[in-house]
Amino acid sequence: MVGRMVETESGRRIGRCRDMRAIAGGGSLKVTQLVVGRRGRLEHFGIGTPRAQTPDAVPWESVVRIEGSRIVVPDGTELV
User: Fold this and answer.
1) Total number of domains constituting the chain
2) Which domain, by its residues, includes 47?
3) Domain assignment present for 65
4) What are the pLDDT digits (tens) for 21-72?
5) What span, in angstroms and rounded, lies between the C-alpha atoms of 30 and 15?
6) What average pLDDT does this structure show over 69-80?
7) Residue 79 included in any domain
8) What span, in angstroms and rounded, lies between the C-alpha atoms of 70 and 68?
9) Which of 19, 35, 38, 42 lies in disulfide reach of 47, CB 3.0 to 4.6 Å?
10) Looking at the domain assignment, is residue 48 inside a domain?
11) What distance in Å separates the CA atoms of residue 6 and residue 69, rounded to the nearest whole number?
């Protein structure tokens, strides 16, 4: 997942997936968001922390499909 381009169904680029956020429970992890952009790259390397006021992620529920090197989300998807 990390490194793939996140795009809408019509081809608008949202950004490259730099990391994933998940919650732990029941002995497993559940992916909740794909972190995109420059801040996501820094977060991936442990520099900085997620900030709710700075939109830098796509909700996992928005993922429509994964094809090759891209992750497709519906048109109108915005960063949270």
Assistant:
1) 1
2) 5-73
3) yes
4) 999 999 999 999 999 977 666 666 777 665 555 678 999 999 999 999 999 9
5) 22
6) 95
7) no
8) 6
9) 42
10) yes
11) 9
CATH of the domain at 47: 2.30.30.240
pTM of the model: 0.80
Cα separation of 37 and 35, whole Å?
7
Neighbours of 40 (CB within 10 A): 23
Identify the pLDDT of residue 50: 59
Give pLDDT, residue 40.
67
Q: Which two tokens stand for residue 35?
A: 């972190």
Q: Write down the pLDDT at residue 54.
A: 66
Which positions ≥6 away from 7 have C-beta within 8 Å? 13, 14, 70, 71, 72, 73
